[in-house]
Each structure stands twice: as structure tokens, then as C-alpha cells.
Design goal:
Number of helices of chain B: 10
Largest interface: A-B, 29 and 32 residues
Oligomer: heterodimer
Strand order of the largest sheet of chain A: 1-2
Helix content of chain A: over 70%
Number of helices of chain A: 10
Structural class of chain A: mainly alpha
């Protein structure tokens, strides 16, 4: 099992990343949230066996990583942690879709195309979500959602859940450390201890969450999690949105991969 | 806000399991003064602080904060007068950065962005951690977390500071900084602590809780030098007032 204290540190690293300044970080949270939402909608709109047509969408995370000065390792670490889930979801496709399809000179089961498409789509979706939180921050996401008209309760639940995950991880770290120190060097948690530990964890985290809630109430929390005001939605924010929405539309309407292939072929033919 | 006084009159409180904690406790704190609340474990100190903050409701008796008698209707107004610092600063620091935590109260108070910034900057400067504003609380040391926790309530400009074990788990230098900071603040203070040296140094008055009631209340240097009283209440006299075991003399205070 991964050391929970490292998971907790990685969790807080995202908060730290979001506090930087860059051409992406400085955009209005609504611009970042809207672009991410549009990106996800475009991904979802592709057919279940499309792979090459989706690939040009990788430009968005690549350029965002570069402009926001986020180390790709930060992204890969998180992708690695969800990779088993992504593969598990996609792995069912080759099992159920056995009808053969031709891909160039090869004939393969159609399920493999669905598998590839799902892996690409889920990878892009997770990447976009990570980049949104790493650039706008959870507070920024909340501001963006509120500005987009999402009900206050839903936004508060999202923010509280995010904070509860941090609190739960902190309690897991404390408990596993206490267990390790008295487990005589054995790896993992014995089954006989696991149940009481999980129960204890829930009770401890519930108790701690109660104290955090008290601390919030004593400082005027009334059900709305106020995270400060964002700057005005300006011209650069509009241009940022329009540029990416335009690009997503082009990727959706034109098979860029095929078009680039045709151009490359023509250039190669001309040279011959 | 001006320093607030505090009056507790005949407070009775039992937990839902019927276990009585406070039985008719009365206590008074003058505006601008600092009162130490000391007592053995389970004597009701933290419960009393919870009652003052309105986190718990007494079965009977009244709590008066700066002329406002605490009840459910005026809880919000009463809490604006109180800055409650929890024993564990991790309970108090829950956002992604120190600044956001310090700004949390003023934002909820409906202040505009400039006023929030002004309050937060002033609070951070007062406790001496202005350079940590952008740091996530997770990365702070215990002493820095304690200062950040105090800044989160100072930014709300309270008239009464309620502190639960403020010197717990602090190293000697961090504890010294804390004492210097608290002695420089003008707010009234109610401090529950096991650190009797801190009580002696910081607070003019002390109340000793025992068995859910105030066993003794008065000048700190008188009460905390009474070894018989302290022993009866499960406490130990601070080293600085104890007689020298060799010559039998006491340090002059």
C-alpha cells in the first residue's frame, strides 16, 4: 500500500500548484472551468471506436502543462494512481466486442478499438480535471461553478468533500503509522485488525470533521463557503475561451489526424 | 472591537449520558483582563470553553459576553465577539493556504475584498507570520500552526479570546513567542491550560476548577503559590514558586 502521508502530501501539492501565477493560472476561474467542461463534452461526443480523431485533443493538456509550468511528473503520478481503474473499465471492451474490424493491413477484434478509445478518453478526462484543480484551485473551481449558476448547496458539498478527503487521509496517516510502529515489522494490516481500524477511522474522522465544522461556525460559516472574489472576466479570459473552444470545434468537425496524414502523403508524393 | 467582559452565572451542564460536568459554576472576567482556567484532566475546562463559545448549551445558568446574554437567537452576534482558538491547530486550519484560513472569518463577515485583505494582513503581521501567507497549513511547524490559528481569530477583531491549551506541544522558543504575543494583545482572554507557568506569567487572575465548580479564584500569584490548594485539586505548583529544596527559600516574584 502506498504511504498515506505521501498521498496526503500529493493532495496538498495540488493546492500549492494552484497558487502560482502563469498565463493559465491568471485566467478567470469561469474561463478555466468552462474550457474544461467543453473539453470533456467534446471528448464524450466521439464515437466508441474513434481513436486517431481524438488524439489532436492532447494539444490542450500539453500546452496547458507548458504554459502553467506544471511538471508532467505531477500529472503522470496521478494518472498512474488511476490507471488500474481506467484499464479495468476499458478491459471489458475486447471481451464483449469480438466482431473483427480492419485497421490498415491488420484485422483485429473491434473491442480493441473501443479499448483504445476508452483509455484515451479517460486519460484526457482525468488530465483535464487535474489541470483544472492545479490551475484554478478548488476555490477557483467553486467560484467558476457558482458563476456558471451551479446551486450553492452542490458547490458547498463539492468543497466539503474535497476537504474531507484531506482530513480522512490525515487520519489514515496517523492510524497506519501507529499500527506500523506496533506491528513488529509485518507489512500490511491484519484482517482481524482491519475492521476495527476502519470503524475507528470513520469515528475519528467524524469527530475531527465535527471540530473543523465548529471552527468554521465560530468564524461565521453559514452554509456558504466563501473563497474570495475573482478578478473580472476580462478580454484575455474571453480570448482564452474562444481560442480553445474554436480548436475543440475544429477537432470535432475535421479529422485532423487524417488531414495531416493526407498532407504528409501529398508532400511525400511530390518529393518522389 | 473593544475588549469584552465575561460573566458566567450558576452554569450547570451534563453530557447526554447524564454525566455531570459543571454544577452551578460562576465566574467573572473584567474587560481587558486575562483569566487562566486551570484544573486536572476532566475538571470541565474544555466544556466550559465550549459553553462560552456557544458550542454547547448549559442546562441552566446564563453566560454574558460584553453585555450580551448568550442564547440561540444571538449566537451569531455573540460569536463575533469571541475568538476561539482550539487546542489542536489542525482543527482550525482547513483551507489550502494560511491566507485563506485567516481571511475565512472576515469573508463570512461580509467585508469587501480590500477590507478582508487589510484584516488578514494585519492579523498575520501581528502574529509574525506574514511571510507564510501563501503556504499550505500542512507544511507549517507546530509553532507556526499555533500562530496561524491565532491569526485566524484575530482577523475577526474579537473582544474576547478563548484559548484551549495554547502552549500544548510547543517547543520552549515557540512557547516564549506565544506568551509575548498574548501579553501584547489588548483583548480579554480566557485561557484553559495545564501550563501553570504560563498562567502565572500571563494572567493576573486564575480560577481553579475542581469537581465541576470553581474551587478557588483570585490573583494568580497567590493561588498558584498555594501548594496545599493545588495538591487538593490534582495540580502541582509551578517550579518558579516552589521553595528551593536545598535552602527552603522562594524566588522573589
Amino acid at each position: 500500500m502506498r504511504d498515506p502521508s505521501r498521498t496526503l502530501a500529493a493532495f496538498y501539492t495540488v493546492d500549492e500548484l494552484s497558487r502560482r501565477h502563469s498565463p493559465v493560472h491568471d485566467r478567470h476561474p469561469l474561463a478555466l472551468s468552462a474550457t474544461t467542461a467543453a473539453f470533456m463534452v467534446v471528448i464524450a461526443s466521439f464515437g466508441r471506436r474513434e481513436v486517431s480523431t481524438i488524439l489532436p485533443l492532447f494539444l490542450y493538456p500539453c500546452l496547458t502543462l507548458a504554459l502553467a509550468d506544471v511538471r508532467p511528473a505531477e500529472l503522470f503520478r496521478r494518472l498512474a494512481s488511476v490507471a488500474p481503474l481506467i484499464l479495468a473499465i476499458a478491459a471489458l471492451s475486447p471481451v464483449f466486442e469480438t466482431a473483427p474490424v480492419r485497421v490498415g493491413p491488420w484485422t483485429i477484434a473491434g473491442g480493441w478499438l473501443s479499448f483504445g478509445s476508452l483509455v484515451v478518453k479517460l486519460t484526457l478526462t482525468v488530465t483535464a480535471a487535474f489541470l483544472l484543480v492545479a490551475t484554478a484551485g478548488m476555490g477557483g473551481v467553486a467560484r467558476g461553478l457558482r458563476a456558471a449558476g451551479v446551486p450553492r448547496l452542490a458547490v458547498v458539498v463539492l468543497q466539503m468533500t474535497y476537504r474531507y478527503v484531506a482530513l480522512l487521509l490525515a487520519e489514515v496517516t496517523t492510524m497506519t503509522r501507529a499500527h506500523e510502529l506496533r506491528s513488529g515489522g509485518r507489512r500490511g494490516v491484519d484482517r482481524s485488525v482491519l475492521g476495527p481500524m476502519i470503524g475507528g477511522l470513520l469515528l475519528r474522522s467524524y469527530d475531527r470533521a465535527g471540530r473543523v465544522y465548529d471552527a468554521m461556525s465560530l468564524r461565521g460559516f453559514d452554509g456558504e463557503y466563501r473563497v474570495g472574489q475573482a478578478s473580472r472576466f476580462g478580454v484575455p479570459d474571453t480570448l482564452y475561451c474562444l481560442a480553445w473552444l474554436g480548436y475543440f470545434a475544429i477537432v470535432r468537425l475535421v479529422d485532423l489526424a487524417e488531414a495531416l496524414g493526407r498532407i504528409a502523403n501529398r508532400l511525400a508524393g511530390g518529393m518522389l | 472591537m473593544n475588549a469584552c467582559g465575561l460573566d458566567l452565572n450558576a452554569i450547570r451542564f451534563s453530557y447526554p449520558d447524564g454525566r455531570p460536568v459543571l454544577g452551578g459554576l460562576s465566574l467573572s472576567l473584567k474587560p481587558g483582563s486575562k483569566l487562566a482556567l486551570v484544573g486536572a484532566n476532566g475538571s470541565g475546562k474544555s466544556t466550559l470553553l465550549g459553553l462560552v463559545a456557544g458550542l454547547l448549551q448549559p442546562q441552566s445558568g446564563s453566560i454574558d459576553i460584553g453585555g450580551l446574554t448568550l442564547c440561540k437567537r444571538n449566537l451569531k452576534e455573540a460569536r463575533q465577539r469571541i475568538g476561539f482558538v482550539f487546542q489542536d491547530p489542525d482543527d482550525q486550519l482547513f483551507t489550502g493556504s494560511v491566507y485563506d484560513d485567516v481571511a475565512f472569518g472576515p469573508r463570512n463577515g461580509g467585508l469587501d475584498q480590500a477590507a478582508v485583505r487589510e484584516r488578514a494582513d494585519a492579523a498575520l503581521s501581528t502574529v509574525g507570520i506574514a511571510d507564510l501567507a501563501d503556504r499550505p497549513p500542512f507544511r507549517l511547524s507546530g509553532g507556526e500552526k499555533r500562530m496561524a490559528a491565532i491569526a485566524t481569530v484575530l482577523s475577526m477583531d474579537p473582544g474576547l479570546l478563548v484559548l484551549d491549551e495554547p502552549s500544548a506541544a510547543l517547543d520552549p522558543k515557540a512557547r516564549r513567542r506565544l506568551i509575548s504575543l498574548l501579553s501584547s494583545l489588548s483583548q480579554s482572554m480566557l485561557i484553559a491550560t495545564h501550563d501553570l507557568e504560563l498562567a502565572l506569567e500571563l494572567c493576573d487572575e486564575t480560577a481553579i476548577l475542581f469537581g465541576g465548580a470553581v474551587e478557588a479564584a483570585g490573583r494568580s500569584k497567590d493561588l498558584l503559590a498555594d501548594e496545599g490548594l493545588l495538591d487538593r485539586c490534582g495540580l502541582e505548583a509551578p517550579l518558579s514558586v516552589r521553595a528551593c529544596p536545598v535552602c527552603g527559600k522562594r524566588a522573589a516574584r
